[in-house]
Protein 1
Amino acid sequence: MTQPLRAPLAVEEVNDRAAIAALAPEWERLRAEVAQAGGTRGPFLSPRWFAIWAVGRRVRLFVAHRGGRVVGILPLMAEKRRLAGMPARVLRSLSDDHSQRFDVLLSPSEPQAAAAALWRQLQRDDDWDVIELRELPDESADGARLPAEAQADGHVVRAWAAMKSPYLVIPAHEPGSSKFRANLRRRKKKLEAEIGPVSFERVEARGPALEAALDEGFALERAGWKGELGTAVACDRSLRRRYSMLAQAWQARGEAAICFLKAGERRVAFHFALLENGTYFLFKPGFDPALSHHGLGHLLVDAVIRELRPRELDFLGDDMPWKREWTDTLRPHSWRYIFSRGAWGRVLATWKFGLMPTLKRVLQR
């Protein structure tokens, strides 16, 4: 009996934000399949996330599909900038320092075919010198497939080790050492004696009330060292708008976790987090520096575990001592670079990963 012909695998490029909304149902289906198969999970792979990140960017969204069914998604953006001081035409993952994580979405049923199709589409273009994929989890098989395809075709491929994000799989027993737990209880009692009863608050409001809570939370973040360095969310209007869009979009689905630790009626610590499928993704913490001796950040993490009962708490960001109080489990990330086979692509690869590191070592000596 003759087998029915399989639809060919095709790739289309999309350049406007509106198309992201149109692709949302298929995108979400693919994202769920990847997560179910053990691939990268999290809000930073959703169409809503990329629609927000696409504002003001030159989007180049590559979509692989077979018979109308999406099997691969690669969200990129085009920019002209300096790479290690050298001018370059860069195709960059649609992400930045606030994205925390990025990955290529490939159907678990045919990941290699989808990756090969996406790569063939990219290879046809001659309008880029380097492809830069930021913060790919080292554990991701899908994130490694595109660079592998490029390397097989003779392109120079390099990796740069990036942040190692701590994460805590919530055990049946209380996390942390017995000494750490005793210290938490002592600090909580001192805070209650000094200010008032300690409680946990998750903001359920939307609209203006949610914005007011965000203002208060980001003021706490700005009150610390991030405000002094000018890196706090409240220091950048466009960044503040982006976090507002994220909060409103995820709050509509009941997945925003805008949380406070309260002492009496006073909000003293803050989390901007998203809670998706049992994982608490912590993007931005903040606390009142005048009360830092009470360990407010730790008290709020403890309250989140007790009140929201997530299966996993992903601290995101890089490894820091305060996160290590909770866990020693790390998720390493890398930036992956694919250089064009043109003369300038080879020059960039040699300079960034050969000559420049050597020059730095010499100067340091």
Protein 2
Amino acid sequence: MKVEDGKRVSVEYTLRLDDQSVVESNVGKPPLQYTHGSHEIIPGLEQALSGLAVGDAQQVNVAPEDAYGPVNPEAFHEIDKSRVPEGAHKVGAQLVARDQEGHERRLRVHEVRDETVVVDLNHPLAGKTLIFDVKVLAVE
């Protein structure tokens, strides 16, 4: 059976970046399961899996435009240091903010200045080419 729209697909994968650093892997863990064509995974990976069969394995390079998009310069915001917990006054610190409706949004500290902190609301993988080593385990 081949991967096609509406099929429930199980995959094993390792996700790396251009520098070969491993971002995530489910090898030896439960598979990633998704319904093909339902936009549950990034578009570039879903497109690459179309037509594969159980047991097929391949390396997939996904450009930022087909993953988490390019880095959006408008997603950087400078806020007063007093609005950021002291323990997060360091580059790379990750925070969760809530908007007025109570929706959560993840952000990272991009820069720490004397009186302010610059936060980045882009997805951590925005602007990056993603390299997946993927194997189709099941198609139902």
Protein 3
Amino acid sequence: MLSADLLEKQGEREEAIAYVLRADSIVSLTDNYEWKARISGFLSTQYRIIGLIDQGKRYLKKGLEASNKITPKSASDQYKGMVYQEMAHYAMQRKDYEEAIILLKKVGPLFSSMKNVQMKNFFFGNNEEMLGRSYLGLVDYKTAQQHYNKALDFLNKAGAGASQWAGMTFHGLGKIALEKKAYAKSLSYLQKADTIAIAIDHTSLKELVYRDLSDYYKTMGDLGKYSFYNTKYLRNVNKNIKSERAATNGAINRLYEKQQGDLSLPNKLIMAASVLFLLGVLLYYFIIKKRKREQWLYEPPLTQPNVPEGDVSAPEISHLAEDGNEERFMPEETEMSLLQKLEKFEKNQEFLNPNLSLTLLAANLRINTKYLSHVINNHKKKDFNNYVNELRVFYIIQKIQTDPSYLNYKISYLANECGFSSHSKFATVFKNTTGFTPSTFLDRVRSEIAASKNVSQ
């Protein structure tokens, strides 16, 4: 469990899960319900993070069952409180912050019975940070700040002023200050969070801090530091995505192997025969459906209007099933495959094509435009045009910063180089993205290069 905890903080999620499953196999042979609750809680968290919600909730249920069997009652209450906190995390992931707050307010009385004062302060600090985060999600900055300040007070009393939860608290306070334009306070809080994130090597905290530090420096007009922190942010995003993808693949493989191992030989034979029969029946149907799908995929309906280049794609709306649960807009394997294709699209710099459109990219990726638009809106947090245009701007920024010859090119050449159809469109998008006109940015880079040469001389 200690190894798993360290690996999880470093973003090695699949290895962390593997260690916890080993711990689970050991503790399952005992009546140590405290460890069973702790292990179930850890696994619930990991499966929640990688998107296997049903699997995570199964472990959450196991954790609650184990918590009810723990003695003495004060220890049982402690673990019940932790289960409520994990339930609140699920609510926060759904952006249901009101539900998260209701759950977190149930935690206080459960933690109050803890005998160890230091641990009690630590758990109260943890809970106050989560309340602060929930109110921040509701854009109630005043209440969020009150809970964050309480969190720091409890954590300092617990001797945990340099812990992950303190780092999360400083990050929250920094984000509030940035939103309220209290820039000096924002930088101070974010730098404290950064110091903690580096000290404990916590990749998820680094991602949050680097994102908001880049936003801070962009707001302040310091494009050099903005570029520096934005690059670090993107690296951590990429690392976390790869970690979660590896953990998801590992979890799915383990579930498949378990299901295969649970089948008896007769059942396997019956299943194999059933599969062969179904394959024969569905073959003709599959061929017909494929032909129709390809026609729909590559030939837009006659009634579909042409979307002008500057228009914003509307995000797709999820639907609710009769039981109130959110239905998936597309199969999960399709969504993951499309994300991998977009990663390859970015790596190969295919966004530099000036004729690129949503329809063209969808055809190249062999997917329909609705799926593509949905994935970009939900995973890239922007519409198609802004997604492509930002990739182009950051491409040309990197070129300017790494190749001095680009400092001598005309703006129209730079626009054409990164895939924009006109000088004016490039200038508009560049300024909206960076806060600078292309000319101003070039002048600043030239000044920085000149200053660095003078220092070296």
